[in-house]
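Hypothesis: this fold can be encoded by more than one sequence.
Test: take the structure tokens below, design a sequence, compare later.
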């Protein structure tokens, strides 16, 4: 996912604090969903290093590690061009990331590309639905008109979640191993 240069006609710029909320999972665990902050580099690093190889591959379509500077880039969010939400459990001293959802606004300023990844232990527990639902609300609130993304054609969990949230799905005409997802906002 590339970050386009700032544009004067970018949709409304939200403030990061408006994304903070809590959610309780079916097992009673309280989850905080909030915007990623600059100080979250260690939190993000622990999250990514704890992902299974399969989860990471399904998200980034590669098993490569992060390149120098990517971790910093993932936590330095310019809310005029992107939104990144993190789901966490625990308190300030033992906070643990369990999922991340983000979007980046396209050059046109009308649509954005999204990505989401949820830790293996939190998959099929509703965390992904909450994170992606909040990301959709953020995109709508920013005045964007369309949310797009891609996933491996074999990623049934992601495709199921996308369908539940109203996305249309279609095979990528350039790559049969990829499914394209789109949601009109």
């Amino acid at each position: 996912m590339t970050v386009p240069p700032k544009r004067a006609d970018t949709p409304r710029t939200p403030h990061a604090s408006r994304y903070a909320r809590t959610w309780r999972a079916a097992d009673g665990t309280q989850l905080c969903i909030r915007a990623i902050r600059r100080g979250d580099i260690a939190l993000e690093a622990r999250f990514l290093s704890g992902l299974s190889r399969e989860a990471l591959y399904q998200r980034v379509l590669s098993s490569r590690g992060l390149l120098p500077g990517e971790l910093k880039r993932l936590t330095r969010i310019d809310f005029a061009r992107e939104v990144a939400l993190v789901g966490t459990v625990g308190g300030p001293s033992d906070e643990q990331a369990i999922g991340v959802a983000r979007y980046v606004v396209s050059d046109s300023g009308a649509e954005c590309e999204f990505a989401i990844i949820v830790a293996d232990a939190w998959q099929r527990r509703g965390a992904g639905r909450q994170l992606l639902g909040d990301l959709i609300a953020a995109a709508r609130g920013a005045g964007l008109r369309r949310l797009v993304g891609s996933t491996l054609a074999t990623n049934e969990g992601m495709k199921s979640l996308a369908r539940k949230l109203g996305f249309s799905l279609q095979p990528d005409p350039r790559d049969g191993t990829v499914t394209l997802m789109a949601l009109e906002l």
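The CA atoms of residues 124 and 157 lie 8 Å apart. Residues 1-13 have pLDDT under 50 and may be disordered.
Hypothesis status: open.
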